Automatic annotation (TrEMBL):
This is Biogenesis of lysosome-related organelles complex 1 subunit 1. Signal peptide: none annotated. Belongs to the BLOC1S1 family. InterPro entries: BLOC1S1. Residues 1-22 are annotated as: Disordered. It catalyses: L-lysyl-[protein] + acetyl-CoA = N(6)-acetyl-L-lysyl-[protein] + CoA + H(+). It comes from Onychostoma macrolepis. Pfam families: GCN5L1. GO terms for biological process: endosomal transport. GO terms for cellular component: BLOC-1 complex.
Amino acid sequence: MLSRLLKEHQAKQNERKELQERRRREAITAATCLTEALVDHLNVGVAQAYVNQRKLDHEVKTLQVQASQFAKQTAQWINMVENFNQALKEIGDVENWARSIEMDMRTISTALEYVHKGPVQSASS
């Protein structure tokens, strides 16, 4: 009877060990599956972040090129405006020069008329 009880006890212990081992393997398998699922989920996020970073890098390069082109265009516009302002100043200088010449020509014209007509004689002479 004691030996039968011992055998039953050992059999139950073996069953419990087997059950515990099976549950341990199932837990390991479940943990592995969970870990893989989490890693896969994280990898998708990382991959999307990488794709987004590449797009941003491309956009930054494009923006740098466009900013450089805009800076060159702006420099050309500034140069054109400065040249235009200089031309306006020169036109103003030419206008002043023309007035000065006109005044000189009137003075000369008046002098020539005076010389041509001679001195005005008085009525009593």
